[in-house]
Design a protein that fits this description.
The chain contains 7 helices and 8 strands, in the order βαβαβαβαββαβαβα. By secondary structure, it is of the alpha/beta class. The protein has 3 domains: 46 residues, no CATH class; 71 residues, Alpha/Beta hydrolase fold, catalytic domain (Rossmann fold), CATH 3.40.50.1820; 34 residues, no CATH class. It starts with a strand and ends in a 6-residue tail after the last helix.
Length: 197
């Protein structure tokens, strides 16, 4: 059985459109072909969130492991994929969130739940500590980018994940229009590798 962990982005939640699309797609598969899917709520802080996902993986993952992450979740997915030797699918991922999120320092509101939280300078330090300077094996990564991303420069991710499988589409936006078109490919990629845990 393949294990997939979907990691949502900043100010997002398991109720995001991409998380729901992935869950709905998995639910339509025959039971024998259905991967185990975990969509955690990332709301504590970078270090605690990544540590919590790592504990879940160590206790529950079976078979091939793949992380799927969007935006900030893509940054987390990279840190975890390197830790576990797993595959990762990244959708418009953040590469330098400790810089990208600087304008959000202070009180914030989750766009899906309405929960209020605060971004602190300590969070930026935690993000720097999680950064992966060089991928151990770029072929374990599948990257989806849209050049119309209004939040992050797609070229930064394209360069950082050089050597990875990349799908770069013109237009679109940070939310990644048409994500559901790629779900079958994402699941095939997730199932084709074996984690070295």
């Amino acid at each position: 059985m393949t294990t997939i962990v979907y990691l949502h982005g900043f100010r997002s939640s398991p109720a995001s459109e991409k998380a729901r699309a992935l869950q709905q797609f998995v639910d339509t598969l025959p039971e024998a072909a259905r991967p185990r899917l975990c969509v955690p709520d990332l709301e504590t802080g970078p270090a605690a969130d990544v540590a919590g996902v790592a504990r879940w993986v160590e206790a529950n993952a079976e078979g091939p492991l793949a992380l799927v992450g969007s935006s900030l979740g893509g940054f987390y997915a990279t840190a975890l994929a390197e830790r576990f030797g797993a595959r990762a699918v990244l959708v418009n991922p953040a590469v330098h969130p400790y810089d990208d999120l600087a304008p959000y320092l202070g009180p914030q509101t989750n766009l899906y739940t309405g929960r209020e939280f605060e971004v602190t300078r300590a969070h930026f330090d935690e993000l720097r500590a999680l950064a992966v300077a060089r991928l151990a094996d770029p072929s374990r990564y599948l990257l989806y980018l849209q050049t119309g991303d209004e939040v992050l420069d797609w070229r930064v991710a394209c360069a950082h994940y050089g050597g990875a499988w990349q799908c770069v589409e013109g237009g679109g936006d940070h939310g990644y229009q048409g994500f559901e078109r790629h779900l079958a490919t994402i699941l095939r990629f997730a199932a084709s590798g074996f984690a070295s845990r």
